[in-house]
Amino acid sequence: MPAAKLRILEAATVLFSQEGIRAVGVDRLIQRSSVTKATFYKHFGSKDRLIRDYLTAASAHDLTELDRLIHGHDSPHGGLAAIVDAVHEVLLDDGFRGSLFVNAAAEFPDPRDPVRVIIAEHHEAIASRLTELLQRIGHPLPGEAADQLMVAYVGALSWGHVGDPVGGSVAFRRSVERVRDTREFA
Fold first, then answer.
1. Radius of gyration of the chain from its Cα atoms, rounded to whole angstroms
2. How many angstroms separate the CA atoms of 6 and 44, rounded?
3. pTM
4. Considering only CA atoms, which of 99, 130, 108 is closest in space to residue 51?
5. How far apart are CA 33 and CA 26, in angstroms?
6. 2, 16, 57, 114: most buried by Cβ count inside 10 Å?
7. Is the sign of the CA dihedral 59, 60, 66, 70 positive or negative?
8. What is the pLDDT of residues 30-48, one digit of tens each?
9. Where are the alpha helices (DSSP H) in the chain?
10. How many Å apart are CA 174 and CA 170, to the nearest integer?
């Protein structure tokens, strides 16, 4: 990726996460990334394209990290525990501003908008990975359990931003423990 394009994406990541997508104009992005207007439009053509590329890059990063957490352990239980620990770390980070995907969805309410399509695909990819992980654990209802974990995950990220990060982390951990304990489904 060309250096200028990378600088623009990095500027978008910082500004969009701190201030919101719609609040940040092209001129601020250009200034923050130290590129010319012509360079910005050469690489992205529009702010809308930058938003889509920003979310696509963030999704790829998050899914790569999720795969690392899941597969970086000897057992699927270790992968699930690593996810819980990672959510805890995110929630307690001083720079945490909520889920960039949930925040973006709030700014783009039309479910047919290309931004919302990227967000839905991102969450579906997480749910799919969780379903596979729960299958490996031997959960009798991995799809339903993955849905429960998705609600707990998105809820923890939201509550951790607008309310209590520690409470969000503890609630997520407990939700995972309940889902992992397959006896309640037997």
1. 18
2. 11
3. 0.92
4. 108
5. 11
6. 16
7. positive
8. 999 999 999 999 999 999 9
9. 3-19, 26-33, 37-44, 47-71, 76-92, 100-107, 114-137, 142-162, 165-180
10. 6
